[in-house]
């Protein structure tokens, strides 16, 4: 046991650890924060789960702010939690007047959050208010990269990939809205490396996903399709996955630099209501 | 010889042995080095015989290399390398910056996007003097009393390139580098440790604080951080490579006998990607 009373135990070989011995509704000491940050970077491989929490929106914000600067999700202000613009609702439930409360049926394809932006989110916190169905799958992208054949690692070492939000929506026929010109500009495709080095751990991780990676740069269309097809298939092998069955009071913290995730479908007659924060790097890396 | 890490002082700096920077560093060794760097703030590698190319390859493991604003003192074949040198060209012009950074600072603290790391290679060094002194800003923060910590909570500091320069030669450049604001206390993204982020050389004062109070707080913090217990001095041998973390230490140059040659190469390392 850590001197703070915190206990960490792995959820799967490739990704995820449970954290016990902390009530996140109370102010977190620096020692607790540092132990949690360390576990997130080590035993959790980028995913931590805190069960049995009882958090207000402000509590989720306060926790999230320890890890970086919170992004206000400007693309769709209507899904913000009322009175708390740093959080969005992830739910198919509606307000009494019939307006949708949040993002419904989102994230059905593998992705990491804001992968399509020039500055992606480093992390996200996800708090479960209610959940009768709708699990989330996580993939450990350190483990996936490390298990690649050496020759393949060499082949992709300096490749770049185009990440695109509109690609995601077009390909999967998201029945979302028509974007305004301003929104389209906010989601213009960007390029990121296929393999990223995590700044805290120095470990390399894959950074491509079924949902957001459109193509590789500087190789033929056929080669791009071949490499991406292989990587997307390889990185979601069962040995790299953890399946989260949400319970009310679960708080997840995931690292978008070394994990990706996918929401699994559920029966929309069931209740499911989550709140998410989007965590950016603080002040230009210092 | 397998790589090893030996601490060099109580609060900061460690020496890494058994790593030859002429060779590509494998991922496992790099991770050990990165962990040690996060833990000690400054790492030293001795007896390195490296080219500018090797220095760049090593530096690039930690991030993206920036090109320094002192264009006239860049290595002609490698613009990512800044020369700190008192050697002269045949026409008498200096090849590098000869005397710089005499007051405590963190590199590029005056920039909107400061650098995370700096790497310095001592190719030729004087027999006496010219130490580079480091001070741990995280140990200094940890040692602050509770009222001072609370006073610093949420405080924003004004960082100024203009403050670093005094002579007329710099006047033009001074105008094009505007003051910036950074938190007075930063949280290290890898370790979660807090650190002071103010310095004698670059910090002008604090936002929203009367000038007298701001000056007095700044003087107090600068003096606190400069206490010997937080310090470690690098006494250069030719072949030393030092990498330091600008988020965890401040540093300053000390004088040396200018009749002896001192020729150093420096790289400036930014985060690998936007939004590290």
Strand and helix order of chain B:
EEHEHEEEEEHHEHHEEEEHEEEE
The top level CATH class name of chain A = Alpha Beta
Major sheet details of chain B: 9 strands, mixed
- Helix and strand content put the structural class of chain A at alpha+beta
Q: Could you say which structural class the secondary elements and strand pairing of chain B correspond to? A: alpha+beta
- Give the CATH class of chain B: Alpha Beta
How many discrete domains of chain A?
1
The percent of residues in helical segments of chain A reads: 10-25%
CATH topology of chain B: Double-stranded beta-helix
Number of domains of chain B: 1
Instruction: Please state the oligomeric state of the protein chains shown.
Output: heterodimer
**Integer average pLDDT of chain A:** 92
Shape of chain B: globular
Number of helices of chain A: 7
The greatest interface between two protein chains, and residues involved on each side, is: A-B, 30 and 33 residues
Topology-level CATH name of chain A: Double-stranded beta-helix
Radius of gyration of chain A: 19 Å
Poorly predicted segments of chain B: none
């Amino acid at each position: 046991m850590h001197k703070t009373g915190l206990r960490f135990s792995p959820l799967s070989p490739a990704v995820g650890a449970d954290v016990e011995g902390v009530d996140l509704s109370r102010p977190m000491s620096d020692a607790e924060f540092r132990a949690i940050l360390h576990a997130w970077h080590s035993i959790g491989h980028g995913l931590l789960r805190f069960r049995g929490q009882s958090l207000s929106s402000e509590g989720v914000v306060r926790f999230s702010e320890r890890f970086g600067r919170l992004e206000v999700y400007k693309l769709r202000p209507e899904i913000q939690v009322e009175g708390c613009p740093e959080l969005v609702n992830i739910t198919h439930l509606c307000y009494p007047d019939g307006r949708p409360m949040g993002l419904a049926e989102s994230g059905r394809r593998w992705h990491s959050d804001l992968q399509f932006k020039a500055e992606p989110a480093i992390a996200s916190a996800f708090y479960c208010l209610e959940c009768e169905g709708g699990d989330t799958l996580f993939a450990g992208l350190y483990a996936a990269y490390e298990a690649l054949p050496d020759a393949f690692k060499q082949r992709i070492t300096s490749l770049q990939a185009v990440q695109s939000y509109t690609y995601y929506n077009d390909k999967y026929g998201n029945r979302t809205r028509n974007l305004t010109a301003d929104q389209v500009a906010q989601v213009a495709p960007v390029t990121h490396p296929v393999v990223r080095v995590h700044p805290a751990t120095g470990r390399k991780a894959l950074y491509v996903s079924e949902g957001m990676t459109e193509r590789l740069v500087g190789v033929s269309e056929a080669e791009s399709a071949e490499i991406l097809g292989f990587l997307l298939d390889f990185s979601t092998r069962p040995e790299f996955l953890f399946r989260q069955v949400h319970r009310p009071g679960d708080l997840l913290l995931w690292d978008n630099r070394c994990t990706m995730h996918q929401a699994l479908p559920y029966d929309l007659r069931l209740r499911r209501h989550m709140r998410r924060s989007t965590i950016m790097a603080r002040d230009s890396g210092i | 010889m397998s790589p090893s890490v030996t601490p060099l002082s109580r609060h900061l700096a460690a020496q890494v042995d058994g790593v030859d920077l002429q060779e590509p560093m494998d991922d496992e060794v790099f991770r050990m080095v990165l962990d040690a760097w996060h833990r000690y703030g400054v790492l030293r590698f001795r007896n390195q015989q490296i080219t500018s190319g090797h220095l760049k390859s090593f530096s690039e493991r930690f991030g993206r290399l920036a090109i320094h604003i002192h264009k006239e003192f860049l290595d002609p074949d490698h613009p990512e390398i800044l020369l700190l040198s008192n050697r002269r060209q045949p026409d008498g012009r200096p090849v590098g910056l000869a005397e710089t950074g005499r007051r405590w600072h963190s590199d590029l603290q005056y920039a909107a996007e400061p650098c995370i790391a700096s790497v310095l290679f001592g190719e030729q060094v004087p027999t006496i003097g010219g130490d580079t002194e480091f001070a741990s800003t995280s140990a200094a923060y940890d040692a602050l009393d509770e009222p001072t910590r609370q006073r610093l909570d949420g405080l924003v500091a004004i960082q100024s390139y203009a403050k670093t320069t005094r002579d007329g030669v710099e006047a033009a450049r001074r105008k094009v580098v505007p003051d910036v604001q950074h938190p007075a206390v930063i949280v290290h993204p890898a370790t979660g440790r807090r650190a002071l982020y103010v310095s004698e050389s670059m910090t002008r004062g604090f936002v929203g604080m009367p000038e007298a109070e701001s000056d007095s707080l700044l003087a107090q913090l600068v003096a606190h951080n400069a206490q010997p217990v937080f310090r470690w001095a690098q006494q250069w041998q030719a072949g030393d490579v030092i990498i330091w973390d600008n988020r965890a230490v401040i540093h300053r140059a000390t004088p040396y006998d200018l009749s002896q040659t001192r020729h150093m190469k420096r790289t400036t390392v930014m985060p690998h990607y936007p939004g590290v």
